[in-house]
Amino acid sequence: MEATALADRVIEIVDGQRQELVELCLSLGNARDYAGDEIAVAQAVEAWLDEAGIETRLQRIDAASANAVGILRGTGDRSGGARSLILNAHMDTQGAAPAAGAEEERRLRGAHEQDGLLFGNGLANDKAQLAAQMIAMRTIVRAGFRLRETLYVTGVAQETGAPPERGEEIEGWSGIGPRMSQVREGHGARWLVEHGIVADYALVGEITDFKLGLGQAGYLRLRIAVPGHLRYTPLLIRGETPGDNPNPFERAAHVISALESWATDYETTDALDFGKGTIVPRAQVCEVAAGGLPFTEVSDSCNVFFDVRLVPGARPAEILDRVRRTLGATGLDCEVSPYDYRRGYLAEDADPLGEALGRAHRRVFDEAMEFAESGPISTWRDTNAFNEAGIPAVCYGGRARSAFLGGGLAGDRRPMAVDDLLALSKVYALTALDLCGVVS
Prior knowledge:
Elements: H1 3-15, H2 18-29, H3 39-51, E1 55-62, E2 65-72, E3 85-90, H4 102-109, E4 111-114, E5 117-120, H5 123-143, E6 151-156, H6 168-173, H7 177-180, H8 187-194, E7 201-204, E8 215-216, E9 218-228, H9 248-269, E10 272-273, E11 278-279, E12 283-290, E13 300-310, H10 316-328, E14 335-342, E15 345-346, H11 351-365, H12 374-377, H13 383-388, E16 393-395, E17 416-417, H14 418-436
Parallel strand pairs: 3-6, 3-7, 7-16
Antiparallel strand pairs: 1-2, 2-6, 4-5, 5-17, 8-15, 9-13, 9-14, 10-11, 12-13
Helix pairs in contact: 1-5, 1-14, 2-5, 5-14, 11-14
């Protein structure tokens, strides 16, 4: 089929699935999706793909967690540059069940449609992108196209964090610290690749405002134990310096102030402009917690959990040394312990995928594709897991309506327009056909 006719056919089929796309988003968006407990989403993805006549695989991680995989097998004819492709998005969503109960959980984490917008805590991040990829794969099936190389659609678990190994040391740090701090981001994508889902390229669907992301930040997470002794309040004598004050929590206030100052400078000193985007590493305190029950041990401590994002190529030992020297200037003898680290990567040898994506973007939007701004590429995304494995990976996804952005709170729904998701499905389908190749 001639290229223009092929594209017209794809666009026509996607447009005919508008209501089905909405229903799919609502179904996935209302399924339980906590990181490490998203088996319901995986099973829903598997069932939907199976009903569409697509080969499926449920890749178990444990009893409550799995990756869902859809496969359109190619003929193996790589003539004309045909290459295999993974379309990837994650199924899990940050956070835990709110303390207020089931009704509050439905309000904060449920999904609904209103005036052409899809609301839901887990849609923008990230099940709406997954739904668009699933529609794209079914569009190829419905069009009757036969691919030269294999196409995968993968809904992965545990992107926002994996349940940590609960050793006694970590358990003693804080009741919720390492879990809340998103330990081992990207675990599901690594599991996916390590258990045999490999391809020439990977296209990760996450919010980029329809722009191309060619790099992502990594991270280093630190626990900073601020020593001290919690005195009986009437007997407290603070002294003249932070070190004279025995209270570990009041000492920690000085530590946090020093970390904030360091993090502010870090955004400028360590920003990476790689020619096709700028990664701005950020850092923040993400939890403060008692190291144990007061008036119980010989000494007390306050644990400060510090999340430091890393540009590709950053050396974690050097970052650790800089943080330690900053804290040393406070005069407080803090213990700094790394507990979670992942590298960031720039995509290498991804030009064929980027070019196919650019052609699809131009066909759908009638304009050249731009590079992603610093925000989307300064976060963790699963392109890192694929690039780490030697599978060139880029990021491209839709947009969340900025008027609704509220800083990442659990109730921040970040709605996505149905029209945008239809356009995204078209781009994904056209990119897959271009890269994987179509048998004449």
